[in-house]
């Protein structure tokens, strides 16, 4: 990092943290007590603060990573500062932990952008800092900076594990991946992604060698024709059935294998991935979740994914491959028809964006979900098109992990999309400065509206005296 870039990064990060502190104070003044899921998280953390580590609220479905880290930070600070009584492990003090995680995420996003795009010398320090600020302000994540939820800590440890993987520190990556798993069990998928990232590097090296041996019939890595895909499949089978190659890959990824085996043991003993109340977190094959994620990504990355050039390119692709797109459309319609699930929380809780998206869009008519199929197909095409600079085996591994982390979820919950979105966004090429600024402005506007409504547009349910607030 050059000196001018270091000064600029420090200034932007400090400014962003100061702004977050001011918003944090406003949120805590407006909502002093636990709200929504905090009603479970805060008392559980307070029980840990008092040394009652065997006490557990059965309504909590995640492991105690957030509470352990909170106690590990708050208790020493309280001892050093001489704090006693209710201020220690109060709701505000616990929420502040996520503010610290937010600062850590800011730094990790910068380091990841620098590492992933280190070969792109055309990218300036200003662009890296601007992209970091934009991703740190990503609305679905940024909002939970101010509440005591698992998301900021989950993102912190997962991104940190990914960074260590990219630097080849695999044992450290696994340790951090375990911490991420302790915040949210589905983060084990991103540990597999880190292992897959390592395997993909070896596969790409071997694939390049394979192509150089057959220069006269060389094909593109990424054109995606059927013959190309069959050749890749044959190569994978040949490579992965070689004992020498399997030994090499195992030697590279053994720390990840140990963690994944430990996860499987946990699932076997626990009787499932969810701890606590499982009645509302049943796994299913909810394939339209992929369509929702792709639409979500296009919405939040529209400056990069919805441009005149991309729309034109997609139209030309449609004209060139009508049979393939007809088949894709038929498969999409079938998946929507047979595998659409509506969780009871989605229909019952009017405090979330998803409630209004479902009611205002999907419930307008029973055919709406089918009419949206072309939007899903364009979203998928545009999403994949922005990843074409990545090696083919990295793309395959990412999509496998994306399916694993989205499809089993019955509930449409935008928080589940945070990590796959960030990993996608970190890996696409740097857009133009204009598009970066437009994206940042959009994120700031969404954050401002959401926080304003959360703080000022309260309401009450007919059967409750509690103040309700609108949130992600």
Concise summary:
The protein is mainly alpha-helical.
Shape: globular
Read across the widest sheet, the strand sequence of neighbours is 1-2
The average pLDDT score comes to 91
Uncertain segments of ≥5 residues (pLDDT<50)? 216-223
In DSSP terms (H or I, runs of 4 or more residues), the helix count works out at 22
Structural category is mainly alpha
The string of secondary-structure elements, in order, is HHHHHHHHHHHHHHHHHHHHHHEE
Question: Radius of gyration, rounded?
Answer: 23 Å
Strand content bin:
under 5%
Query: What's the count of strands?
Result: 2
Helix content: 55-70%
Report the biggest beta sheet as strand number plus sense, adding barrel if it closes: 2 strands, antiparallel
Q: CA-to-CA gap between the ends? A: 36 Å
Describe this entry's structure for a reader.
The protein is mainly α. It is built from 22 helices and 2 strands. Helix content is 69%, strand content 1%. The chain starts with a helix and ends with a strand. A two-stranded antiparallel ribbon has the order 1-2.
Output the keywords:
472 residues; mainly alpha; two-stranded antiparallel ribbon; 2 strands
